[in-house]
## 1
Amino acid sequence: MPDRLIRMPEIQPITQSGTGAEIPQLAATLKAAGDPLRLEILRLLSQDSYSVLELCRIFDLRQPALSHHLKVLAQAGLVSKRREGNNLFYRRTGSTPLLAQLFANLDQLSLSDARAQSVARISEERAEASRRFFADYGNRFREQQELIASYSVYGPQVAQLLNSGRHALEVGPGEGEFLQELSLRFATVTALDLSSAMLERAQAFADEQGLANIEFVCGDTRATSARPASADSIVVNMVLHHTPDPAQIFQDLQGALKSGGQLLVAELQEHGQDWAREACGDLWLGFAPEQLSQWAQTAGLRDGRSVYSALRNGFQIQIREFVKP
């Protein structure tokens, strides 16, 4: 038999942009990432944002030592920071092919047991703070909600993107208004809420409206693992900024979606109005659109349709659709 011709891949020449800054920047990036502790920090920040104090607890470091490592990572463009009240929160950034490859390999590594336990404790503390707020202020929910954005502002826009099908899930139904929309379009609906007080309010609304095809479940999104690939549509209206681990919400809900199913998220965009923490129980001061896209992509979802609107009180709302392939 004749020898098979093996075609070698074509070598692409290195191009010069003329700025002379590429190699120093690359060296700074590699130097910043070339430290075991900083790699651990980048691995941790793949799924969530953490404050400096939370990171000190997770890594058992004094604040000056940790702040030094964060400064190095920030100067290399590997993390970004945002102020939420008196705290600085850090998240992972960077979109170059080199960083994408680095992060892809890094994210395959597991956190140590000690790190994972610390992360779990912080997540539970955040969840408990949210539970306490809604237990104490559930009767004032509508008043607090309207300080930022009433249901009438975002509800109809979410409905315009909503599909129909056999089963829908709403996470954090609030006082239940959107359940009426879901009840008309789907054969069965599940309302899931971590707060029993809020769930009772939603159920009272459903009873008043005669919505008979809704099941009410008290729990967080981990409960959806009992029914994998069961929902045609999942709706999360103004909930993520109350949750301790927004990235995990995407992971959990991706598993609950059918192939081709949609996840609809109505959420605040990033803002600096810190009073919303105490007045409305917000754990996060909104999110940048690319942050939601990143969490969705990591969870195996792709971007769909989107609507953005600004409110007179200075807040901006994003309504996003994510689709499970």
## 2
Amino acid sequence: MSLDWIYYAISWILLTWHSAWDAIGVPAAAVLGTNWSWILAIVFLVVTVRVILFPVFVKQIKSQRAMQALQPKVKELQEKHKGDRETLQKEMMELYRKEKANPLMGCLPMFLQIPVFLGLFHVLRRLDPAKDAKTLYGWTAEQFDSASSATIFTAPIAGKFGSTADELARLGANGTTVKVIAGILVLVMMGTTYLTSRQMILKTGWAEDPQQRMVQRLMLYGIPLSLLVSGSIFPIGVIIYWVTNNLFTLGQQQWVLRKFPPLVTNKGATGNKPATAGRGPVQPAKTGGFLNRNKPAAQVPAKPAAPKVAGPKPGAKPANPKKGPAKRQG
């Protein structure tokens, strides 16, 4: 399947934002060794994609809330089918189907951004002055040459940590500078990737479902560590995209988690039993509103307590002594 439509779409968004910054008056020449019009074009490529994917992000949050609400039932199934993994998986899939919860929905926004990432990777990898097909994917030769010479702190955005000497020579770049800038950006990319996963897990907690917990661990540790290796082949412009995307995710998650906090299971003093254990029946909390945010539970009126009657004080005479003391039988 041809991915040209992705390359054309990414190029169109990138070039549109670059033209917009040029029209606003952002200098075309490098300032502090950086061509800001191209850097801002990459940053606002992220903004454009995230705005388009915002409805999917809302569905992701709804799915996470649904999965969290199902955790008690999941735990019951795990206790019921302990040692029978096949039956447990069937029962859990049936539970998810019945409750219309999708465990994979939490990863959907990330999966949908993969084509964008691959498209930008392909487009920026082509920024080589030696290329002949400069007008591919809707570029003009002038735009291609401008992007090929674009830099961030004197390191070309088309360069990468693993650039060969020939590639650096064609880009007119210093190898040490490229490695330092690319290395710093790769570390920032790893750190922000870790923080985005950690932020969500700290707010929602570790999943009871082993599969979900495995996915959480993969997101938290596996992906950031994999970037240490794969980051060496990413053009600097792609790393800028990834870091910007992570920062956008951190801000968006913080806003959503603060405005629509996750469900919280109240626990007793021991932390093992719910705080409501041993009490009488309580009216269930009503849910509704955006993202099924909980509303306060209806309060059950307490029964009036019976009035207390004070007992007689020690040594006091009876209040109404109608009978005298009983005579002792001889």
## 3
Amino acid sequence: MGAGLGILPLAGARRAGAIVILDSTWRAEGGRPGHETDGFRAHVALANQPQFAGLIALSEDDGAAWDDASGTWIGNFGGVGWVLTAAHVFKSGEGADTYLYRTRTGTVLHGNRLYVHPRYDGNGDNRSGYDVALVQLDGQVTDAGAPPLLYAGDIRVGLRIVIVGFGARGLGSTGEDSECDDPDDNRTAAENTVDAVTPPSARDTPDDDSGNWLRVTLRREAEGGGRLDGILGGGDSGGSAWARIDGRWMVVGVNASGTSDTYGGESFFARLAGVRPWLAGVLPALRFIP
């Protein structure tokens, strides 16, 4: 991905994906050479909490692997399921049928139709805040409980969020590492604290950030990082960021991009608040709070 978040361009910005966690947590959970996946047990348990049951895995190789991208089931409308994901996982000219879509219990569905936010720039520069797409599936999702609440209110710096998705895993000291991956299911989640919030911008010129994003940073425990903290790496773009607000879990953003997959790396999420009018235009029956 090119430059483009914030007031100044971010050098080396990259597509979002995997969950990268603290080395200290990985070791405490049993991670060690030859047992790399054990270190992710707490993050896997977090991802498998019932409120995140709508997490959808995407495969572009007919199901040979399920770590190409992620999405979130947001309800069944018109007799079929709909998935919220990132626009950038679809290259120019691609459609919803680029991927297969797998639900929590392994049901595989196909994509019928793709909707991409009109403010998203296909090159990705400066548009992470609008890196949002909707996919209409060819059948209903029946194993994810109730559709999630979508939060369209204000978000402040200091809010704790949970990020979920599929993709390569890694440690803050080394970045992504295939030895950490689970060949059967890479469903993983991490927490972090929002440290920047940018409202939508009225400008859509190539050199101006269009805003509407949230940011988190991976910090070591000694620098204030929490035990389950993590950031995005490369592989589960389109997954979701959640927050517990007024006692209820809600989707607040879509995994969009990041600067690196090691300590000090930042991850960015498209705010649902800024894309609510478009989402509601495609699916008027969506439930937003407030």
